Amino acid sequence: MNFETVIGLEVHAELATKSKIFCSCPTDFGAPRNSQVCPICLGHPGTLPRLNRKVVEYAVMAGLATGCRIAEFSCMDRKNYFYPDLPKAYQISQDAYPLCLDGGLTVEGDSGGKFIRIERIHIEEDAGKLIHSRDEILADYNRCGIPLIEVVTAPDMRSAAEARAFVSELRTILRCLGVSDCRMQEGGLRCDVNISVRPTGSAKLGERTEIKNLNSFQFIEKAIEYESRRQIDILTAGGTVRRETRRFDEQTGTTHTLREKETAADYRFFPEPDIPPLRLSPADIEALAARLPELPAARRKRYAALGLPAADVHILTEDRALSDYFDRAIAAGKHPRITANLLLSEYLRLSEGESFSCPVAPERLAAVADLAGAGTVNASTAKKLAARLWEGDFDPAETVLREGLGQICDEGVLREGIRSVFSENEGLVAQIRAGKTAAAKALVGKCMGRFGGRAEPRLLNRLVDEALKK
Amino acid sequence: MMNELISRDIHTLAAGLQRKDFSAVELVRAHIDRIRSREADISALITQTEEHALARAAEADARLAGGDAPLLCGIPFVLKDNICTEGIPTTCASRMLADYIPPYSATAYARLQEAGAVLLGKGNMDEFSMGSSTENSAFYPTRNPLDPIRVPGGSSGGPATAVAAGEVPFALGSDTGGSIRQPAAFCGLVGMKPTYGTVSRHGLVAFASSLDQIGPLTRTVRDNAAVLSCISGPDGQDDTARYTFAAAEDLFSGDIRGITVGLLRFPGDETDSAVRAAIEDTAAALAERGAQIREVTLLALKDALPAYYILSSAEASANLARYDGVRYGARAGSAGTPDELFCTTRSTYFGPEVRRRILLGTYALSAGHRDAFYLRAQNAARRIRTAFAENFAVCDCLLCPTAPTVAFPFREKTDPVAMYLGDLFTVPASLAGIPAISLPCGTSDGLPIGVQIMAAAGNDGLLYRLAAVIEEVHA
Q1: B83-137 tens-digit pLDDT
Q2: Would you list the domain boundaries of chain B?
Q3: Which of A45, A87, A276 sits opposite B84 (nearest CB)?
Q4: Can you tell me the distance from the alpha carbon of B216 to that of B222, in angstroms, rounded to the nearest whole number?
Q5: Which residues lie below 8 Å from residue B374, measured CB to CB, with a gap of 6+?
Q6: Is A273 in Cβ contact with B210 (below 8 Å)?
Q7: What's the rounded mean pLDDT across residues B293-319?
C-alpha cells in the first residue's frame, strides 16, 4: 500500500521590535543573563502588560503580505500553565479572536506551484529559557516578553520538501518586510509540525502527532521524514498511530514521545482583562498596507522577466537589501543581466553581515555594467573596475578613458599581437597544431596577456583559431 | 493640641497646615502617637512607616512654607497592603508575600506622594482581598473600632479601621466586589469605588483584574472627592485606565433637584429591617430635597452573586498563579521537580480561602466545565451591564443598602457561602464597572448603617453630589 504524508505547520517568528511586547525592556539577543528584565516581564505583583503597538503593526504587515484578512476586532487571551520559565504562569496570546485570518502562500510544491493555506496569524509573548545542570535549574528571563507571531497553516503540505518550501518562503517574506530577522540559530524562527499519514487516495486524515520546536530547515525535513516513516511502519504492521506530542532528537534524527493526548494540558484560556480588545479601522489597515514593500514573489517575477537566470533571481530575492540595491542599480543603467552578474560575482562575497551592505553607489555599478554592455570594456575589465570601486569611489567611464582600459577590437592590432605571441611560443603552437587542443586555452591566455586583458574576448578567440589553422 | 489634630477631616487639617497653626511634622507625630495608643486594640496595620513618614513630613513643611502646596500636602494616610510601595513591604496579608518588598511604587501611591501626602502605614486586609471581614488575614484580624467584638468588614478592613480609629484622616483601599464600600459601611466612613478605569491599577496586586479598582476611604464626602481627584486619570502604565475624575465647581452645592433616584429592590433580599428603614428614610430625605424617587427592580441582578464569585475566582486563579516560589515571595524547600516546588509552596503559603477561590476558579475555566460556569457567568455579567445601561437611560442613580446587616461579630460567618451572601448589594456595580459609593445613613444599636449609591460609568461626580446631601442630612 502507498501512503501519503499530510503536514500542517505552526511557525513562531520573533518580531524585530526594539522593545518587548508588554514592557519597554530591550530585545537584544545575547545580552548577559537576566539583564533585560523588569518587574513587568518578571511578573511582579501588581504589574500590568501594556501592548506595544509596533507588535500589532508588524503582525498586521505579516498578515497582509501573506494574503490574510485583518480582523478589525481581536483580543488577547491568557493561556495558563505552570513552568519555571513562565513568570506569570500564563502566556498572553490570542485564542478565539486572532489578528489575521485566512491567508496563504504559493510555494514550489512537489509538482509545480502550490497554494498552502494559512488559517491564522496571532501575536503572543515568548517565555524565558531554562538552563539545566546536574542538580539545579537556572532560569534566564531575557527572552520573556519578546514578541512572537504564530503562523498556523492548514494541513496542506505533502512532503518534507513542501514544508521546507513554505517555511523558506515565509521567512523570506518576513525578512523582506523587516518585521522579523528569522534567525533560526538564535531561535528567532521555530516550527511545530503536525503530521499524519494515510493511504494514498483516502480522503480521511490519519491520527496525527505534533513535533515541537524545530529550529532549522534541516531538522524540519529530517523530523518529517523520520516521523512519516515511523507512522507508515506502524500502519503497515497493523498498528495504530497514537495522538501525542513528540520531541525531535537532533543527535539521532529520531522523534520521541513528549506527552500523550490523555495528559495534554488544559490551558484554560480566557480573555486577558488587562489589555482592552484591539480594534483596527479599515483606514488603519490601509495605512499599513501602503507601507508594504514589493514582496519577494513580485520581485522574482520581475527579475525573471528581465531574463535573469533562475539561480540569480533566487539569490537576489532572498535578501531585501540586496534586491533593493540591485533595483537602484538597474534603475540607473541599461544592462540588468550584467549588473546582476557583477553584483553577485564581485560584491555579494565581500558584503559582511546578515543583510547585504556595500560601499559602492549603485549608480557606479550601473555605469560599469553599461560600459561592458556597450562593448567599451570587456567582461574581465568590468569585473576589475567593479572590484576597484569597492576600494574607493571613482567615475568608471572617465577612468576607462584616462587609463586606456577600453576594449581592443581592431583586428589589425590584434593580429599583430597574436603573431608575436605565436613566434615567442613556437613549441606550444606546434603542440596544438599536432592535436593537443587542450593547450589552446593557455595560448589564448598568453595573447590576452599581451593586450593587458583588454582584448575583445570573442574576437581574440576567433583570430587565434584562424592563426592556428594557417 | 494633639487631640485637635485627630479625627479631623482633610480639609480642616489642610487649612490648619496652610495657616501654619501646626506643622506637618506635628500633624504626623500626633498620628504616630495615635497609632501607638490604638494599634494594640485594633490591629489596623501590618506595617508602620514612622521614619519614612517623619522625613516626608519635613519635606511637606518645606513645601508648605513655600506656599502653593496642594491640598494633600502634609496629610497622613494609610494604604491597603496590596498597593505596592517601593522599598516598603507589601504583603497582601499573605504568608506568601510576608517578606516581599516591591521594586516599584503603584501609580496611586506615587500620585499621593507627589501631592505631598505622608504614608504612615500599610493596612491589614483579607489575604489577597479575598473576604469580607478581614478575618482572612494570614497575620491577625482587625477589630472594628466602634465595637471590638465585631469585624471592621473587608477586605479593606485595616485601612477603614485606621481612618475610623483616628489613626489617619484618609486611606486607600481596593474594591473588587465591595471591599471598600462594605468596610466603609461597617466603620461609618465614606468609601468610593470609582468607575472601572478611573484609577490606574499599576501597582495594585491583582485579585480579579477586570473588577479591581482603588478608591478612597474618608471621613467626609468632600475629602473623598479630593483624594479621588488626586489619584485618578490615565498613567500610561495601565491600558484599562482611561477616565479622569475632576470635581466640578458646584459638586457640593446641595442642589439635587430633578435628579431621578431609583430605590433598588433586590430579588431574594433578606435585609435587616433597621437597615431597610434607614435606606427608606434616606430616600425620603432626598425626595424632600427635590430628587424624584422611584422603585426599581432589575431581574438580571439575581445572578450577580454567583457570576461574581465565578468570574472573580477564575481571574484570581490566573493572577495568583505567579506565586510559585521561583522568583520572589515564599518558597517551600528546594528539592524535587519544579512541579513539586510549585505544589508545596502554594499549599504551604496560601491560606484556606485563597486556596478555595483558586480551586473554584480553576474548575470554572477547565475544559468540560467552562461552558457551565465561566461562560454562563460571563453572559450573566453581560445581562447585568445591559440592565444597568437600560436603567440609567431613564434613572440617574440607584440607591440600596451597602450590606444587608451592620458589622457582625467575629466568627459569626464560618460558612463561606454565608459570608459571600453579604456581598449581594456590592457585586453588581463591580460586574458592571460602574461607580458606587457607601456612606453612613443612620445607626442600628449604635453601629453605623451604610447606604450605597450607584450611577452610570463615568458619572462618579453625581454620586458625590447626592452623598453630600445625605451627609448633610445626618450631620
Answers
A1: 999 999 999 999 999 999 999 999 999 999 999 999 999 999 999 999 999 999 9
A2: 2-231, 261-301+381-467, 306-371
A3: A45
A4: 11
A5: A270, B310, B311, B314, B364, B365
A6: yes
A7: 96
Residue B170 has pLDDT above 90, yes or no: yes
Name the grid cell of A176. 523582506
pLDDT at residue A262 tops 70: no
Helix A440-450 to helix A426-433 angle (10° resolution) is 140
Give Cα separations from A324 to A389, A463, B453 (angstroms). Answer: 19, 42, 65
- The catalytic residues of B are 80, 155, 179
Query: In this predicted structure, what is the pLDDT of residue A273?
Result: 98
Distance CA B88, CA B47 (A): 8
Cβ contact A46–B204 (<8 Å): yes
Q: Name the strands in the sheet holding A189-199, side by side, starting at the edge strand that comes first in the sequence.
A: A69-70, A100-109, A112-125, A147-153, A3-14, A189-199, A209-214, A244-249, A254-260
What Å distances lie between residue B142 and A37, A405, B37, B422, CA to CA? 38, 97, 15, 18
Q: What pLDDT is attached to residue A434? A: 86
- Compute the distance between CA of residue B388 and CA of residue A394 in angstroms, rounded to an integer: 77
Partner residue opposite B318 with nearest CB, options A49, A78, A84: A78
**Which of B201, B239, B374 has its CB closest to that of A275?**
B239
Contact between A179 and A62 (Cβ < 8 Å)? yes
Residue A261 — very low, low, confident or very high, per pLDDT cuts 50/70/90? low
Q: Which of B102, B239, B338 sits opposite A276 (nearest CB)?
A: B239
Q: How close, in Å, is residue A142 to chain B by CA atoms?
A: 14
Check if B366 contacts A (Cβ < 8 Å).
yes
DSSP string across B100-117:
---SS--HHHHHHHHTT-
Residue in chain B nearest A91 by alpha carbon: B318
CA distances to A20, A155, A383, A394 from A147, in Å: 6, 26, 44, 45
* Residue appearing with cell numbers 540559530: A185
| Number of CB pairs, chain A paired with chain B, less than 8 A apart | 102
**Whether B324 and A139 lie within 8 Å, measured CB to CB:** no
* Region at B400 (left for phi over 0; alpha for psi -120 to 50; beta for the rest): beta
Q: How far is B84 from chain A (nearest CA, A)?
A: 7
Weakest-pLDDT range from A426-430, B167-171, B468-472:
A426-430
Average pLDDT over residues A79-85: 95
Chosen CATH of B2-231 out of 1.10.357.10, 3.90.1300.10, 3.30.230.10, 2.60.120.10? 3.90.1300.10
Give CA separation, A87 vs A47, A81, A127, in Å: 12, 10, 8
What CATH class does A411-469 carry? mainly alpha
Average the pLDDT over A368-391 and give the result.
Answer: 93
pTM: 0.92
Q: Are the C-beta atoms of A186 and A29 separated by less than 8 Å?
A: yes
Domains of chain A, residue spans: 3-284, 294-386, 411-469
Does residue A9 surpass a pLDDT of 90?
A: yes
Q: Does B431 touch chain A (CB under 8 A)?
A: no
Cα separation of A201 and A230, whole Å? Answer: 20
What grid cell was written down for B322?
Answer: 505567579
A139 pLDDT above the threshold of 90: yes
Residue of B nearest to A276 (CA): B240
Distance of residue A45 Cα from the nearest chain B Cα, in angstroms: 5
* DSSP secondary structure letters along A399-435: HHHHHT-PPB--HHHHHHHHHHHHHHTHHHHHHHHTT
Dihedral angle, C-alpha B347, B353, B359, B363, nearest 10 °: 180
The conformation of residue B373, written as its DSSP 8-state character, comes to I
Q: Is the pLDDT of residue A246 over 70?
A: yes
Per-residue pLDDT at B231 exceeds 60: yes
**Residue B80: strand, helix, or coil:** strand
What's the mean per-residue pLDDT of chain B? 96
Query: Predicted ipTM?
Result: 0.95
